[in-house]
Amino acid sequence: MTEETGQVLEQLRSALLEDAEAAASISQLLLENASQSEAAAPWRRDLSRIRQSALRLYRAVRQRLHAPHGTASPKAIGERLHRVRHDIRGILGNVLNRCQLVTLEADGLDEELRADLDRIRDHARRCVDHLDQHREVTRDETPAETPAPIAARRSPAASPTAPLICLPATDITGASILVADDNPTSRELLGRFLKRHGHDVAFAADGREALDLLHARDFDLVLLDVIMPRADGFEVLASMRETGKLAHTPVIVISGMDSGPNVVRCIEMGAEDFLPRPIDMALLKARVCSCLERQRLREREFAQFFTPELARQLVRRPEILTGGRSMEVSVLFCDIVGFSRISERLGAIDTLRWLSDVLDALAACVMDEGGVLVNYVGDQIMAMWGAPEAQPDHADRACRTAIAMMKVLPQFDRRWQSAIGARTEASIGINSGEAFVGNVGTPRKFQYGALGNMVNLASRVQSATKYVRAPVLMTHHTHARLKIRPPHRRLGKFRVNNIEEPVGLFELAASPPADWLTLRRAYERALDCFEKHQLGKASSLLGNLLVKNPSDGPSLLLMSRVAASLFADETTFDPVWTFSAK
Predict the structure, then answer these.
(1) In terms of pTM, does the model score above 0.90?
(2) Smaller CB count within 10 Å for the chain: N or C?
(3) Residue 179, CA atoms < 13 Å, CB-side half-sphere
């Protein structure tokens, strides 16, 4: 076995030496030609580094690949070969990737310099081929073909000559990517390549630094080397799996350790893909694009219910959703008025078109205020603020959303009124308070939302709008939490179905008339008199109010209650109105 392994070393040295020497020689000519070219001035530092890497390659082949002296064990020789191959792959990656970057970035290079770069790349690629043909031989492994990247092997249609396809067709940009690699040149080249494609890149020079960064912030993708000081790539993968990060942060392993068992181990530990050095930048771009596209698809799923910013956080930290907890939130229910009558007139297809048009605009109002679309039930929307991330102004956001919803509805009259034979109207109820927030669905059907008495109350308040004759109502719980109070008026205390404790209701005026303050003061004075059982004074105030505002719904309702109380038994007077209907 020792003799066989020594032969592998000698054969590999012989195969690599000619191309390594040629790459070093051409790099010297390249650097000399570049010193005389004005156009090459901005790229001389890169060209000098290509020369340095080519020399390192030549020296590594000459000095480190030779038959062992003495009686070293096959395992020791195999481990040595394994390490040398890893290092040579790293050097080849530096040569190839820097040549590729210069070719891409330096538009002004003359043809002779570009030809020299191409020749260096050709010799470096032949070195890669030689490495693949002379696999290491150890006690536990026999020569084998270099494993294909995992993503490629997952696709039966993939072939060496097939074009690389990245879905979607346009590049994905703006991702946050961590590059963990102990080789500074490799970090520089990967960083330049990723930043060139519009990504934000952070760097870690060893495994411990990578873990610290992963603990401190969230990333969309990690490019991970295996052999690193303090903690290697396997330890990073294990830690990410233990903390749950690996389930939602894809990792592409990039390493010169290209042997089959290493690939399998990385994938079994949860890595998304494994790319051997030297890296094909086009292939890397495709793999990065593929991983990020899957992340974006998950974000789009969340974005149906959450704001884009929150959706991105939830993809990275889904534990925010799975853990139920008590939180203070504001809940809004919005219902389309007269939906059954309109759907009967329109028919199924046109009803769906009209409803989709309306609900999409109403949902946009929720998203604009950072809300969560908890649920759609027929023609009703349930939305929430204050979770999964706390929002101190959740009550204000809910009220601003209600006002925005009412203001957006008139646009549908222009498009749909002639077809539906009526205006598009909505009724809204808002309540605030403590609720259980988390999965309110089942183990089979996940649904993020709020559960509790305050949610039931919000639903009842929305139903009460038709009795109170005001399209937007909020409870005294919401009113007390407002930091900036929009136009509103107190409507009194009410008992709603199945909730014993009376609730104070306030009308929220989305488009208040010019004399709103006068109307509000007059109504609230009359309400105070009614609640104090000063029925005659309340009747007089309401009479004067209705002369100027004959169609004011809450005033008409209060006048009917005053009149009913005038003829009722005084001992049974109760200023709290009870709604019997849900």
Answers:
(1) no
(2) C
(3) 23
